[in-house]
Amino acid sequence: MVFVFKTNIDSVSKVKKVTPKLNRLFPNSKWNFDLEDCDNILRFECKDDIIEKVIFLMKVIGFECEAL
Fold first, then answer.
1. 5 closest CA partner among 39, 36, 35
2. Of 68, 63, 66, which is closest to residue 15 (Cα–Cα)?
3. What is the pLDDT along the chain (68 residues), one digit of tens a residue?
4. If phi over 0 gives left and psi between -120 and 50 gives alpha, with beta otherwise, what is residue 45?
5. Residue 2 to residues 28, 61, 67: CA-CA distances in angstroms?
6. Residues with Cβ < 8 Å from 17, sequence gap 6 or more?
7. Structural contact between residues 18 and 40, judged by C-beta atoms closer than 8 angstroms
């Protein structure tokens, strides 16, 4: 499945801040940010429904995130 999120992560330095956490919590997923998109898209490819987990994680570490 592919999941798409709107975030407020708008720089490479912010991506570097969340990278270890995303890799640790979702080791079997592929993900990437599109910082050129107006919604600063976070795209996940994985087998499980991870919407609530991603939103919760992002909020805990201080970022906005909503499923599109």
1. 39
2. 63
3. 999 999 999 999 999 999 999 999 999 899 999 999 999 999 999 998 899 999 999 999 999 999 99
4. beta
5. 13, 23, 11
6. 61
7. no
